[in-house]
Amino acid sequence: MFDEMKGADGAVRDHYRTYDRWLAQQAPAMMGARREEAEMIFRRVGITFAVYGDKDAGEGTERLIPFDLIPRVIPSQEWREMEKGLRQRVLALNRFLHDVYHGQEILKAGVIPADQIIRNAQFRPEMIGVDVPHEVYSHISGVDIVRAGNADGSGTYYVLEDNLRVPSGVSYMLEDRKMMMRLFPELFSHHRVAPVEHYPDLLLDTLRSVSPNGVNEPTVVVLTPGMYNSAYFEHAFLAQQMGVELVEGQDLFVKEGFVYMRTTQGPKRVDVIYRRLDDDFLDPLAFRPNSTLGCAGLLSAYRSGNVTLANAIGTGVADDKSIYPYVPKMIEFYLGEKPILSNVPTYLCREPEDLKYVLAHLPALVVKEVHGAGGYGMLVGPASTKAEIAAFRAQLEANPTNYIAQPTLSLSTCPTFVESGVAPRHIDLRPFVLSGKTVQMVPGGLTRVALKEGSLVVNSSQGGGTKDTWVLEA
Amino acid sequence: MLSRTADHLFWMARYMERAENTARMLDVNYQNSMLTQSADRAELGWRGMLGISELTQAYHQRYDAVTPEKVMHFMVRDEQNLSSILACLRAARENARAVRGKLTTELWETTNQTWLEFNRLLRDGLFERDPSALFEWVKFRSHLSRGVTVGTMLQDEATHFIRIGTFLERADNTARLIDVKFHALAHDVFGEAEVKETTVVDFYHWSAILRSVSAFEIYRKVYRNVIMPAKVAELLILRPDMPRSLAACMSELVTNLKLVANDVSSETERRAGRLNADIQYTRIDEILATGLHAYLTTFLDRVNDIGMGISRDFLVVAR
Q1: In this predicted complex, what is the ipTM?
Q2: What is the DSSP string of B266-315?
Q3: B99 interaction partners in chain A (CB closer than 8 Å)
Q4: What is the mean pLDDT of residues B235-262?
């Protein structure tokens, strides 16, 4: 077990020393009072998320994401290395996306089995041969990273998954920082914490840099499924921070190959759409015909190069869990480099050998649906009962291609303020990588924490919380 | 600005204004019900309250007798009644939430807080304990919203559509209030009442109307006279300097409408301008000669028509 704050010998690590000293000086009641204050502010500001499947009208449908008061601290040299690895990985993933929708060199070279791509439900034949600005497909990438302990007491960062469709959570990264500065201003004078507040600037810069050819002053919008979407707060927040319109599908229409929004002063052309809507809902003419969230004709305007979608259509083929095991090979294939960030060893249940191993070791493994998200449809072997494992085994045997399995990593822990006081809880990290004309990111990312003792599931929909993430400047 | 955004802003303001006016009317009725008066007359007041908002039918689908407790419950916290204060504050907040990015942080937080606090006050039993205090609170939250709007919002389209919503709703609500309150008196108030002093009961009736639109002190200041129905009507309809009068509402409406004009809105502007001019150049005796009820009915139709024009021209653009 690797703890971010304390080494195996119980000694506080260097980069936590100042914080630890400060915490020891605080009165016990103070942290409780601060937490109440934080909750009151979050509720008033309306930083909430909706919970799926919770249909009660009224206040109950909006919940606060639990915010933890104790920051997750990353020393600067660790971050520098991670940042290099992230740039490398996202660059390779974007090359891969361009390749699978053009020459498919990587398939011809036999690095990835062709049927893994072509028969993948996330592969969009509509995108074949379509050129996108700067050949960037995943403009906003959320790469989930965990740290696992090694036998010698050291820890290793692993990429758990790449989120290349519509990764969310960045608003919590920003709000958590704002909250920490409000609650504990003195901590920021004791630490040189790298700022993250310029993320919306970088995002706008990225989106503007991928405008269609010939558009110098692009009109950028954020496309949301609407206020009942679980991440609506974030959509509204980012639109406001960037100073661009937050549109719904009903606000857009396509005329003669261009996209327009309906305004009080008549139609206005739209050049770049940061869409927070899955591919399937974007255009009822091309994808789900019953979707009312998208805009009819959007795909054809997009294919003509008259509007840019961020992220591009069809990025799911690169963040699919069945493609994940091949990412280190992509890095070598496209960049000729050794991967800087490690992958978690992964068993593909579609392979008979792997399946056999997985079935024999279920209690020790984490098994995930290939297309699952949000912590749903997964089995955490060590934390499951015999009955749960048996039930899952039946699902797995019925449809093995739908699953992958990984060894249970002992995710690192970070001290967290819970009911019983300060106690270790498991965490992960989602840095946000922005790719446009250049690759940019703010230091750190969103740290999610599993608040239940022993739990490894950090998703907000499953009782996870968030923490402020500090990258200390050297 | 997106048409949908303007629509949300417009309705956010309308619902907040409606919540305030409902609180005002309820408060006056509640205060009056504590005066000694015949049961018939009290019931008339509560019936008028329902009639004013065109809710008589909806009320009787859910309640039998018209009692102060039931009407107040229906108008304050009945979720099924989309005109209840609860429903209005929720709608104002939901509309604000849909466009929170277009509001200043202060305005969004004020609107959100109003909704959260109102629920807390209901839970804490303030409505049962002291209805007047609750009505007063609603009124002041609405004042606060308006103040925060004027004090923090950039004076662009967003503000103009908020103002349009406020004054359109206020024009409607005030006209309904005058109509029902003048109707409530069975006898012909404008016959000899203009010359002779009102009876004691009538005094409370007229002063209640004035108080419900914060105009009691204004009346005294403007007319320095006893309360006479024709003057009350004049104050609430024609005085341009009385902030809740029909004249004041129309003038604000026309001003803000001009600021958001687009290629297709000229007809709506013309109709609003004409209604505004009609009010400016009308005398109260002319109105009374045609009949107050007829006058107000026409006014409400014209306001409604302008509202539909605004919707058509700016808010729900044809698709």
Answers
A1: 0.76
A2: HHHHHHHHHHHHHHHT--HHHHHHH-HHHHHHHHHHHHHHHHHHHIIIII
A3: 246
A4: 96
